[in-house]
Amino acid sequence: xxxxxxxxxxxxxxxxxxxxxxxxxxxxxxxxxxxxxxxxxxxxxxxxxxxxxxxxxxxxxxxxxxxxxxxxxxxxxxxxxxxxxxxxxxxxxxxxxxxxxxxxxxxxxxxxxxxxxxxxxxxxxxxxxxxxxxxxxxxxxxxxxxxxxxxxxxxxxxxxxxxxxxxxxxxxxxxxxxxxxxxxxxxxxxxxxxxxxxxxxxxxxxxxxxxxxxxxxxxxxxxxxxxxxxxxxxxxxxxxxxxxxxxxxxxxxxxxxxxxxxxxxxxxxxxxxxxxxxxxxxxx
Length: 284
Fold this sequence. Notes:
Layout (H helix, E strand, L loop, with lengths): L3 E5 L3 H12 L3 E5 L3 H20 L5 H10 E4 L2 H5 L4 E4 L5 H14 L5 E4 L6 H5 L8 E5 L9 E6 L5 H13 L3 E5 L7 H18 L4 H11 L6 H8 L1 H15 L7 H8 L18
Parallel strand pairs: 1-2, 1-4, 2-3, 4-5, 5-6, 7-8
Antiparallel strand pairs: 6-7
Helix pairs in contact: 1-2, 1-3, 2-3, 8-10, 8-11, 11-12
């Protein structure tokens, strides 16, 4: 039974997962090596809770309980000492994830399930760094976590049926729809999103249409809730480039990153988090 969840990484995805889990009634510890990231995450979560209570989306008592459920730390050993489930939400860098999982395997209780929030990478390869590959799995959340209903659940080669079942129960308690995906680079959604976004970037580079009109075309013509360029800005163009490079090396030519994406990342135009990507957010 899962009572306590540890989230590794205080960035956009990590703080979103922590917020959602605390609101669902889990005890949650959010860990990051950076004090600044922890304080930013705390401020974000408390502001979001207050705003949603004020708007009536969250009951006052539920919001108060969620704040009580949350704790924050920069110490990994402290974060996982009593945990039942760890969800790693670090950068999409395989070496980093493997290093984190090695530490988690040493520090977390023997019964704890270790999950990665990777959007593209192999949970089998990550799990191989541990002595508990049967208790390792991928849980791919979507941004913003508190609004997006889907979780992709990807089992590694050695992931046990019982681990999959427990994670599905957690997803249900979080109010999410879970889909089980066979491990393959990019899973379902990232493969599709990366292809669509990359083609949109190539069309922009070729002068087919403006960024605004490309996004409008997909929103109003294909009923996408968000345009592919706006979505890439939200994800972070550096994160999207890492995903594209991984898929390109794993799956071949059709995933070659758009030259425009490469150029924007080199220029520091990373999307919303830097104030400018395909769109300008400096005045928003």
